[in-house]
């Protein structure tokens, strides 16, 4: 092995290691037997003629493209002049771009569970990633609704290639998805199917150098943020995932043509989540000298929750030169360009297979990334736009192209949209609302704000956020609350929560957040009842059941 290089095989979780290599591949027979792996078998949708199960007419084909930890400002369609994203920009030009698309929570597992279920994290209760779990549930309930099961019942082929990360014990196959079992947060470069792909194509193994990392407060090496990959593009995990997805697309296209069976195919890239590990042509694609640093790199954390300063130290921002930050951002943009190119291969296959006019295409991610904004990397207990506002593109055949919508929408809303496209009942996706009226260009009565939540990552840290057109309120029960005026301070540098002149805004938004949480059944509102001025209440907030009349009488007199 060349000097300075190292072959690194990042292991899967213990839960994966306990399985035999042959158990890691869940490939349902696509023809003949009609057997369904996992939960899809329960519906019986594969018996008889696919697409006509129980007399149900097939819906539209659906291609769902998803990245991990993806900033909105990396795409040309969202205004980045240095972006190398022609494929996603074309999807925006031929479909609908949503400018206020938010994640329900900026953490992988709960966000992905919300997509699967159409339910907010507080409701499905899968609240943290396995890797940093400090006592939360690690799998969805056995009887949990999932859109994939509903699609199976409608006779759909369902496939998921790439990152699962929606539970520990139960895999994508348990929810009726075809594809290799790829859990976890990083590219699992020791996975047997990836190794078989490399061997089949005579491609070199994973090997990296030029690591970028800072120094932790305890003096140890910081988290790996980026590295140079010594493989050709064809050997990257991104290229491998796109190849496997295209192979499945070809099989599904055959089913669609021969038997009228529609499909849902998800391609979930592990990037551009850090560490940004790229081959030369993408590691050096963007000149760092042309990178404009985020203005919030001047963050002082004055008047902010102290956890933010601690997180900055954990991510070692101040131990690296500012030139390194520029390079990290440049490499991050290069990672997005690599993924865009692989999506281009999938879109070309769609064209070649004659599927474009019959297939709805989604593009989004689970949450954003700081890349130096607020002197932070990754994500965490800070509800800034950098990690909560995300890209969202949707193209539906027959809908007007080139639309830009500014309604507050969510990753959660994909679930009801998928169900409606498939002709399935969207009602079980109780926190989701179909985006199809917006995509069709209709004038729709829509909420003027959005609520997001967080429950912790390295440690429990509950937060709730209300975002409206001008202001954002963040409630931190064990710390300083935050209020930002996004018209005058779009970089969220000045917390104006305690400013006397903002008392009216603060009170109005606190009550609005309280009412939304109580209506949803999010018990976070109980803390707010006693700790903040939420106005008169018409219920007994003590839950004692012994003094209800006091609150009824008080409400009547108010």
TrEMBL record:
Residues 1-56 are annotated as: Disordered. Residues 1-26 have a biased composition (Basic and acidic residues). Residues 60-424 form the Sulfatase N-terminal domain. The keyword Hydrolase applies. Gene3D superfamilies: Alkaline Phosphatase, subunit A. Pfam families: Sulfatase (PF00884). CDD domains: sulfatase_like (cd16033). Keywords: Calcium, Hydrolase, Metal-binding. InterPro entries: Alkaline_phosphatase_core_sf, Sulfatase, Sulfatase_CS, Sulfatase_N. Residues 38-56 have a biased composition (Low complexity). The keyword Hydrolase applies. Belongs to the sulfatase family. This is Sulfatase-like hydrolase/transferase.
């Amino acid at each position: 092995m060349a000097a300075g290089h190292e072959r690194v095989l990042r292991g899967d979780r213990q839960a994966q290691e306990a399985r035999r290599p042959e158990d890691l591949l869940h490939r349902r027979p696509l023809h003949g037997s009609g057997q369904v792996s996992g939960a899809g078998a329960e519906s019986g949708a594969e018996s008889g003629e696919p697409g006509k199960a129980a007399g149900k007419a097939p819906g539209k084909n659906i291609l769902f493209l998803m990245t991990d930890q993806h900033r909105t400002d990396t795409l040309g369609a969202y205004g980045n002049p240095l972006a190398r994203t022609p494929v996603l920009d074309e999807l925006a030009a031929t479909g609908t771009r949503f400018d206020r698309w938010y994640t329900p929570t900026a953490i992988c597992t709960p966000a992905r569970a919300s997509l699967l279920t159409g339910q907010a994290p507080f409701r499905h209760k899968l609240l943290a990633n396995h890797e940093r779990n400090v006592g939360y549930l690690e799998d969805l309930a056995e009887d949990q609704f999932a859109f994939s099961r509903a699609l199976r019942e409608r006779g759909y082929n369902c496939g998921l290639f790439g990152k699962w990360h929606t539970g520990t014990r139960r895999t994508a196959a348990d929810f009726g998805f075809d594809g290799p079992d790829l859990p976890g947060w990083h590219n699992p470069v020791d996975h047997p199917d990836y190794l078989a792909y490399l061997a089949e194509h005579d491609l070199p193994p994973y090997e990296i150098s030029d690591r970028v990392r800072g120094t932790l407060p305890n003096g140890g090496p910081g988290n790996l943020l980026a590295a140079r990959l010594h493989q050709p593009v064809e050997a990257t995990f991104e290229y491998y995932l796109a190849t496997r997805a295209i192979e499945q697309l070809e099989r599904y296209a055959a089913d669609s043509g021969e038997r009228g069976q529609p499909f849902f195919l998800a391609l979930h890239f592990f990037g551009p989540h850090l560490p940004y590990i790229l081959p030369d042509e993408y590691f050096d694609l963007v000149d760092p000298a042309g990178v404009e640093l985020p203005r919030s790199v001047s963050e002082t954390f004055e008047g902010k929750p102290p956890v933010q300063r601690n997180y900055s130290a954990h991510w070692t921002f101040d131990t690296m030169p500012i030139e390194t930050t520029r390079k990290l951002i440049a490499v991050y943009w290069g990672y997005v360009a690599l993924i865009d190119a692989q999506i281009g291969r999938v879109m070309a296959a769609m064209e070649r297979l004659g599927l474009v006019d019959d297939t709805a295409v989604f593009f989004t991610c689970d949450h954003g990334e700081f890349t130096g904004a607020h002197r932070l990397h990754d994500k965490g207990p800070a509800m800034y736009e950098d990690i909560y506002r995300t890209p969202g593109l949707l193209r539906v055949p027959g809908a007007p192209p080139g639309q830009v919508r500014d309604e507050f929408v969510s990753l959660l809303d994909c679930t009801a949209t998928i169900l409606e496209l498939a002709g399935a009942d969207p009602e079980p996706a109780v926190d989701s609302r179909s985006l199809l009226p917006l995509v069709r260009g209709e004038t729709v009565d829509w909420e003027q704000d959005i609520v997001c939540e967080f429950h912790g990552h390295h440690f429990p840290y509950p937060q709730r956020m209300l975002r409206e057109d001008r202001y954002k309120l963040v409630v931190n029960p064990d710390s300083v609350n935050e209020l930002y005026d996004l018209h005058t301070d779009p970089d969220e540098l000045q917390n104006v929560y305690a400013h006397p002149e903002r008392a009216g805004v603060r009170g109005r938004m606190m009550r609005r957040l309280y009412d939304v949480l109580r209506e949803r059944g999010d018990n976070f509102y109980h803390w707010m009842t006693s700790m903040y001025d939420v106005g008169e209440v018409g219920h007994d907030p003590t839950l004692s059941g012994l003094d209800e009349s006091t609150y009824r009488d008080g409400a009547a007199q108010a």
